[in-house]
Amino acid sequence: MESLGINYRAIGPELVLTVTGVLVMLLEAFSPGKKVRDGILAAAGIVLAGVAALALWEEGPVTAFSRMVIVDGFRVFFTLVILLGTLLTIFVSWGFLDEERIPPGEYFALLLFGAVGMTLLVAGNDLMILFLALETITIATYVLAGYRREDLRSTESALKYFLLGAFSSAFLLYGIALLYGATRTTNLAEMARVVSGPLGQAEIVLLMAGAAMLLIGFGFKVTTVPFHVWTPDVYEGAPTPVTAFLSTAPKAAGFAAFLRVFSLTFPPLGIESAADQLASHWVAAVTAMSILSMTFGNFIAIAQTNIKRMLAYSSIAHAGYVLIGVLARDWAAVAFYMLVYTIMNLGCFAIVALWARRGDERVLIAEYAGLGFRQPLLSFPLAIFLVSLAGFPGTAGFVAKFWLFKSAWGAGFPELVIIGVLMTVVSVYYYLYVVIVMFFREPKEEVPRVPLSRAFVAAMVVALVGVFYLGLLPTRVFAVLNTAQNLLAIGQR
Amino acid sequence: MGITTLVLFGFVLALLAPWLYRVGRRATGWILATLPLMQLMYFASFVRPIAQGEVFVFGSAWVPSLKTSLSFFLDGLSLIFALLISGIGALVVIYAGGYLAGHHQLGRFYGYLFMFMASMLGVVLADNVIALFVFWELTSLSSYLLIGFDHEREAARRAALQALLVTGVGGLALLAGLLLLGQVGGSLELSTLLSQGEMVRTHHLYLPILLLVLAGAFTKSAQFPFHFWLPSAMEAPTPVSAYLHSATMVKAGVYLLARLSPVLGGSDSWHYLVTLAGAVTMLVGATLALFQTDLKRLLAYSTVSALGILTLLIGLDTTLSIQAAMVFLLAHAFYKGALFLVAGAVDHETGTRDVTQLGGLRQVMPITAVAAGLAALSMAGLPPLLGFISKELLYEAKLQAPRAAPLITGAGVLANVLLVAVAGIVGIRPFLRERTATPKNPHEAPPSLWLGPVMLAGLGFIIGLLPNTVAAPLVSPAVTAVRAEPTEVTLALWHGLNPVLLLSVLTLASGVGVYFGRGVVRRATSRLEPITHWGPARWYDVALDGMNALARAQTRLLQSGYLRYYLLMIIGTTVGLTAYTLAARGGFPRPHGFADVRFHEVGVAALIFLAAVTAVRARSRLAAVAALGVVGYGVALVYVLFGAPDLAMTQVLIESLTVILLVLVFYHLPRFASLSPQRARYRDAVVAVAAGGLMTALVLVAASMRFHPPISHYFAENSFVRAHGRNIVNVILVDFRGMDTLGEITVLALAGIGAYALLKLRLEKKEGG
């Protein structure tokens, strides 16, 4: 057994999440409808998984399960981001489960299984694990997206999501097969070693084609233009708490895999090698994807009247910013960005979900008129999250963007940074528009009072503290990430 | 108490202000004014040491890994600004309490005002350029909130957004410029950067840095062609206009230019760009001012002109010009602040700001009238007021300009002539002549409303009489800081009979002439009016509308909502991207091995091909599904032929299950109602063939490589020896691939159970319903 590298601690977080998921599902089958019990159990499972992940922090870069799974700071940090996203989603979904009469156990179990896929994706050191993990995520999220079965929009979006997702998965798998053909391995560490030397003509062709297909598969998962087409429809159609989840945790996981494969496995080495030949191509392609995502995402977001669609395009735009970090090959900057993005976006969606009420009735930006001083507990946090998304100084959004751009500038992508900054300016327009409507527009009808659940308040407190803590005093988190980055660099040598 | 605490305390007070207002009500303004007063006294305590040449740096780390620290830096230049900000701040806070008395959102107003005050202090005190940028943007943000304070009015909202966008965009350009500067200069601390001038000016990135920094400074200080936001910003309540849009925030750009002139100044590009922008702004502002009838807009355009003068002086870059700039800065802050506050008081008492409707107010508002008169005379540059001294210095600096002195002096005289007329219109005319009817019946303003103007106008008067009270302690250190060399400044009212005095007299006389002949001037130039419709404000609108239109067009094009277009897009990109990578690699390696293709293999391939075509052409769902099934079984046959019985088994089972499931589902669906039109079909065919062709090409490339011996040999050699089985297929399925088979069986069983559950549910529903 030792030779197979079986080490249960190395998949501790995944094990905890799986067991909790199965437990919650079984409980639902035998005594259904106990939301508080199932919710607390699921949250406890997530916290426990977080503890299990933190226990791996000191392990340094080691592998397990025949080098299929890796333990390093990269994985631990992204795992924590995903767990935080999932935990906040549970809080955000609290009221929604009652309104829509959704069996809570089933819903929590799906969230947990999705999280298992995401944490596994982050831990994967082998293309097969990556694929397995991606499929685990997507199957859970397909179901979540179509949760409001009687609603046509929700069903349509789930179907679109499913069909396009299946396509992209097929591309991904095909890409993996081609990469295997080119390098004779699916293990990423081994692959990095193979491509650091020269390869034959046929192998190079396969390597290129395989990487291109992989790029498409990942591009779909992290919603970059031109593989973003499903995003607005699905984000609009899916129940809002699910949209909140979709736009954060799976994206963090997707970017982690993106980094693992492209930035860490196929880095431009600067010497005559297959990796270098490939890098010149993927860097060009990802640059194009980044520019397209930033420009299209931000410009189209302006024209939106539905806040969920607006946030969908904003999500595409942010994916474009993050790609800059992928290009700069600074995973710590990307990880920090995803942490911040997860917090502020979930905060936004929490309020959108609460305000939308049953059946997503109130999702037009115009319907936020008059929220400002009549519902300050909704409007002020929403304004803060939007301002943070726009990257105003003093909020976490600024620090995250600043780090990303700074590192890209240093890595030799000044043109991307300039476009990024310009597009940030454009984005200020549509984020602030919502704030203006909330505070400065008179409502057409009486603004109803929305009761706030304890779970919602908890989510708000966590997200607000996060936005300001990371915005004003990010030093500690920076230090942690830098340590992890240095350890990883040593491990790679 | 440290400087950091003092600055940051403003933000705390900003948060507390709305609550304080609930407790303090009418007295809140007076109570809140104690903070800026304390700040004023605190900064005043630095006057002596700084005049003796000391410089203070206070630092605390903030985000060290990004080289960002919350450090502050106090020298002569920061000090003069800090004193103005806190001093005028105190007066404005008191004034606002009277001006907005009874307004239901006054508490919030104080909050915004303190946020601005703290940020503005941050701008002029920051040592770290990132911190400077952060405070810079915060002043834009608080200005946005303050301009839009009367948010019920569309015009206020529009003006607020306009100001935010213009200054915010400029701010980001500034950030880029500062970061570049930091990279070139090797530090993000201003106190260090200030000594790097030589290196920065010779660096190849100097011009980009300069342009970016100037973009930031010019947008903030409303220089032409970005000046249009400032007059629009007059939608703000008057205390805001007086404080932000005249005395402090708009001078942030001037501060920045002065601050960075030791680093960036001294080159030709700096000289020409800054001087030209300043000169044009000065003239444009003064000219446009003359056309206004609204008190505040008159003042706004004259402020634009004054900002142009300041920029021009900094651009001239001589010791004399900087000295003039610093004195003018003080003079302008005093008289323009006073005039704005007077305009607010007049508006508050009479209900109008239209100068053509105002007259004779001296009888009912004597105190305000005295303040207005003093301020207006200072603006016009009459002795013995500070305005006179500053204008003398101004002319002297312009006459001694290093280049094009006559031209610059001429432009300066022209602008000042116009400003004299404007001073008469805003500060003198409403108080003289006959009383006119106004919407409200005016009384003398309450003390909170006249305290500010009287103090400011009085300061202009007293300092005018005793100019050396500020010359050595304030102006000299400021000039020293900007010039980066010790400078002694002495000021005097009387310089003797010289060309400068002659120019002053000429200016005054012509100004009075223009004042009385303003009707003629206006009529003569009114024909130029249509041009102003195509001014920069129009371009701002066009850009904004264009952005919206572009966004909508993109949505229509890319987000149709139809799955088929999405698929087309994704497949198209895939084919394009992959084909490009392949083509970029110089074509395909030649595939080989076609020689030994056998007949039955061709037969299977033909079968698959025909079935695929049938599936596409079929007119009923069942036929299409059946044809797809044939494709699947054909693939299974291929597996069998090439020695992979385990794969073949899986393929057959999966294929059967899929066909059964599809048939079950399709049974409930209506017939094909509408088929896609011919043209769409051609398009789809092209995409499909391209995608298929690409896959084929890749398979051919892959097939050309053989790196493992075919696994079938291994099975053939070992099935009897190691697994003791004679039937190779059986051995593969249950032995070599035993685990795989188990997994496949499990999956199939699960799928079967799922299908059964679905069917059962349906049946139950039917029975139930």
Description:
The complex is a heterodimer of chains A (493) and B (769). Chain A has 493 residues and is mostly helical. Chain A has one domain (2-492). Chain A contains 21 helices and two strands. In chain A, strands 1-2 form a two-stranded antiparallel sheet. In chain B, helix 14 (252-264) runs parallel beside helix 16 (295-316) and helix 18 packs antiparallel against helix 20. Among the domains of chain B are: 1-204 and 228-257, no CATH class; 601-672. In chain B, the strands form two sheets. A two-stranded antiparallel ribbon of chain B has the order 1-4. In chain B, strands 2-3 form a two-stranded antiparallel ribbon. Chain B is elongated and about 120 Å long. Chain B is an all-alpha fold.
Percentage of β-strand residues of chain A: under 5%
Q: How big a fraction of the residues of chain B is strand?
A: under 5%
Largest interface: A-B, 68 and 59 residues
| Measured distance between first and last alpha carbons of chain B | 80 Å
Q: Briefly note the structural class of the backbone of chain B.
A: mainly alpha
Shape of chain B: elongated
Task: Tell me the radius of gyration of chain A.
Answer: 22 Å
Shape label of chain A:
globular
Please tally the β strands of chain B and state the result: 4
Number of H/I helices of chain B: 34
The share of residues in helices of chain B is over 70%
For the secondary structure, the number of strands of chain A is 2
Distance between the termini of chain A: 28 Å
